[in-house]
Protein backbone atom coordinates (compact mmCIF):
# COMPACT_ATOMS: atom_id res chain seq x y z
CA UNK A 1 0.00 0.00 0.00
CA UNK A 2 2.80 2.39 0.92
CA UNK A 3 4.65 1.51 -2.27
CA UNK A 4 1.59 2.38 -4.35
CA UNK A 5 1.25 5.73 -2.60
CA UNK A 6 4.94 6.47 -3.16
CA UNK A 7 4.65 5.58 -6.85
CA UNK A 8 1.54 7.74 -7.23
CA UNK A 9 3.23 10.66 -5.45
CA UNK A 10 6.34 10.23 -7.60
CA UNK A 11 4.34 10.09 -10.83
CA UNK A 12 2.39 13.20 -9.78
CA UNK A 13 5.61 15.08 -9.05
CA UNK A 14 7.09 13.96 -12.39
CA UNK A 15 3.96 15.12 -14.23
CA UNK A 16 4.02 18.47 -12.43
CA UNK A 17 7.71 18.84 -13.26
CA UNK A 18 7.06 18.14 -16.94
CA UNK A 19 4.13 20.54 -16.92
CA UNK A 20 6.24 23.23 -15.28
CA UNK A 21 9.04 22.74 -17.80
CA UNK A 22 6.60 22.96 -20.70
CA UNK A 23 4.99 26.11 -19.27
CA UNK A 24 8.43 27.63 -18.72
CA UNK A 25 9.39 26.94 -22.34
CA UNK A 26 6.10 28.42 -23.61
CA UNK A 27 6.65 31.52 -21.48
CA UNK A 28 10.23 31.89 -22.71
CA UNK A 29 9.13 31.65 -26.35
CA UNK A 30 6.27 34.11 -25.74
CA UNK A 31 8.61 36.62 -24.08
CA UNK A 32 11.11 36.35 -26.94
CA UNK A 33 8.33 36.89 -29.48
CA UNK A 34 7.01 39.92 -27.57
CA UNK A 35 10.52 41.42 -27.27
CA UNK A 36 11.13 41.03 -31.01
CA UNK A 37 7.75 42.57 -31.79
CA UNK A 38 8.49 45.51 -29.47
CA UNK A 39 11.91 46.03 -31.10
CA UNK A 40 10.34 45.90 -34.56
CA UNK A 41 7.68 48.44 -33.58
CA UNK A 42 10.32 50.70 -32.05
CA UNK A 43 12.46 50.48 -35.20
CA UNK A 44 9.45 51.28 -37.39
CA UNK A 45 8.65 54.29 -35.19
CA UNK A 46 12.25 55.51 -35.45
CA UNK A 47 12.28 55.09 -39.23
CA UNK A 48 9.00 57.00 -39.46
CA UNK A 49 10.42 59.80 -37.30
CA UNK A 50 13.54 59.99 -39.50
CA UNK A 51 11.38 60.18 -42.64
CA UNK A 52 9.19 62.94 -41.18
CA UNK A 53 12.26 64.88 -40.07
CA UNK A 54 13.82 64.35 -43.53
CA UNK A 55 10.85 66.07 -45.13
CA UNK A 56 11.48 69.11 -42.93
CA UNK A 57 15.26 69.31 -43.25
CA UNK A 58 17.88 66.93 -44.62
CA UNK A 59 20.46 68.12 -42.08
CA UNK A 60 18.09 67.43 -39.19
CA UNK A 61 17.42 63.92 -40.54
CA UNK A 62 21.15 63.18 -40.81
CA UNK A 63 21.77 64.43 -37.27
CA UNK A 64 18.84 62.42 -35.94
CA UNK A 65 20.04 59.31 -37.76
CA UNK A 66 23.53 59.69 -36.30
CA UNK A 67 22.11 60.13 -32.79
CA UNK A 68 19.99 57.00 -33.09
CA UNK A 69 22.69 54.79 -34.60
CA UNK A 70 24.34 52.50 -32.07
CA UNK A 71 27.98 53.21 -31.45
CA UNK A 72 30.46 50.35 -31.08
CA UNK A 73 30.81 51.16 -27.38
CA UNK A 74 27.10 50.51 -26.83
CA UNK A 75 27.32 46.95 -28.11
CA UNK A 76 27.47 44.07 -25.66
CA UNK A 77 31.08 43.04 -24.88
CA UNK A 78 32.43 45.80 -27.13
CA UNK A 79 35.30 46.56 -24.74
CA UNK A 80 36.34 42.91 -24.72
CA UNK A 81 36.26 42.73 -28.51
CA UNK A 82 38.21 45.95 -29.00
CA UNK A 83 40.75 44.99 -26.33
CA UNK A 84 41.56 41.83 -28.31
CA UNK A 85 42.68 43.82 -31.38
CA UNK A 86 46.46 44.04 -31.42
CA UNK A 87 48.75 46.16 -33.52
CA UNK A 88 51.88 45.08 -35.39
CA UNK A 89 53.99 46.83 -32.77
CA UNK A 90 52.42 44.77 -29.99
CA UNK A 91 52.89 41.56 -31.97
CA UNK A 92 56.56 42.41 -32.56
CA UNK A 93 57.14 43.09 -28.85
CA UNK A 94 55.52 39.80 -27.90
CA UNK A 95 57.69 37.98 -30.45
CA UNK A 96 60.79 39.72 -29.09
CA UNK A 97 59.92 38.73 -25.53
CA UNK A 98 59.08 35.13 -26.44
CA UNK A 99 62.21 34.46 -28.46
CA UNK A 100 64.62 36.57 -26.32
CA UNK A 101 65.85 38.35 -29.42
CA UNK A 102 67.78 41.01 -27.50
CA UNK A 103 69.14 38.76 -24.76
CA UNK A 104 72.89 38.16 -24.99
Structural summary, described in words:
This protein has 104 residues and is mainly alpha-helical. It has one domain. Helices cover 81% and strands 0% of the residues. It contains four helices and no strands. α1 packs antiparallel against α2. It is flat and about 80 Å long.
Shape, principal axes of CA atoms: flat
How many domains in all?
A: 1
The main pleated sheet reads as: none
N-end to C-end Cα span: 86 Å
- Quickly count the helices: 4
What percentage of residues falls in helices of 4 or more residues? over 70%
Helix vs. strand class: mainly alpha
Number of strands: 0
Task: Detail the poorly predicted runs.
Answer: none
| Amount of beta strand | under 5%
The Rg value, from CA coordinates, equals 29 Å
What is the averaged pLDDT score? 78
Q: What is the N-to-C order of secondary-structure elements (H for helix, E for strand)?
A: HHHH
Features:
104 residues; mainly alpha; 4 helices; 81% helix; flat
Short summary:
With 104 residues, this protein is an all-alpha fold. The protein contains four helices and no strands.
Amino acid sequence: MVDKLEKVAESISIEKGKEGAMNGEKTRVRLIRERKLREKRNEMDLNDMIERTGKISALSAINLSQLLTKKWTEEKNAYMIMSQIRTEKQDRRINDMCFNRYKV
